[in-house]
Amino acid sequence: MVMDIVGFYLPPDSGERVSFKITLLLGYSVFLIIVSDTLPATAIGTPLIGIYFVVCMALLVISLTETILIVRLVHKQDLQPHVPDWVKLWVLERATVLLCIQDRKAFRPTCTQSADISRDMENNDSTGEKSPIRFPESMAHILQEIAAIRQFLEKRDEFRDIACEWLQVGYVLDVLLFRAYLVAVLAYSITLGILWSIWQDA
């Protein structure tokens, strides 16, 4: 369980966390197969150690599911162009305040820098269009190629901004689910300790 919690510190936009948690789940499954024959048989039902192993397996599966959802959300810009406004309101504004995330705007300068450059280019072009000048045919062809390159760069910058927005949403949700997972693990550990003490007294 400790290794599973440490796995949350891997970046969610990489596939390393998914492979790491799948490896943990497979290793834990092999461990359960080896230990299943050594569990003590009791007349009252499933022993407490068996319940512990089953709940740990369930927590590992929940953690893997959460990781898959976050990775899927980070790469969602390929299917859904823009982050919905309600997601920005609840995740990027209110959830960041609730989770005390101070650097929630850290990605925005890098995302908007290219957009500012594109706006400067448009302003320069608009100022240059005020004086009508006739160009030769070869020069007009070059200007068309430059305009096509500019449109391509603007489209790429737009996709980059969308990817940065989804990445911010993924990071905030990852922090939220990580803290909820920590609370669940702590509650389970406290409950298990109480049950163990009651079983020892009985």
Task: Please give the structural blueprint.
Blueprint: H1 2-6, H2 16-36, H3 48-74, H4 85-98, H5 108-128, H6 137-201
Q: How would you describe what is shown here?
A:
The structure is a single chain. This protein is an all-alpha fold and 202 residues long. It contains six helices and no strands. It has helices at 2-6, 16-36, 48-74, 85-98, 108-128, 137-201. Helix 2 runs antiparallel to helix 3 (48-74) and helix 4 packs across helix 6. The two termini are 28 Å apart. The chain crosses the membrane at residues 22-43, 49-71, 176-199. One of its GO terms (biological process) is serotonin-gated cation-selective signaling pathway.
Give the CA-CA distance, first to last residue.
28 Å
Number of helices: 6
**Radius of gyration from the CA trace?**
27 Å
The main sheet comes to: none
Structural class: mainly alpha
The helix fraction, in percent, is: over 70%
Beta content: under 5%
Helix-strand sequence:
HHHHHH
Uncertain segments:
106-110, 125-130
* Mean of all residue-level pLDDT scores: 77
Gross morphology: elongated
Say how many strands there are. 0
Brief characterization of the structure:
This protein is mainly alpha-helical. Helices cover 76% and strands 0% of the residues.
Descriptive labels:
mainly alpha, 6 helices, 202 residues, 76% helix
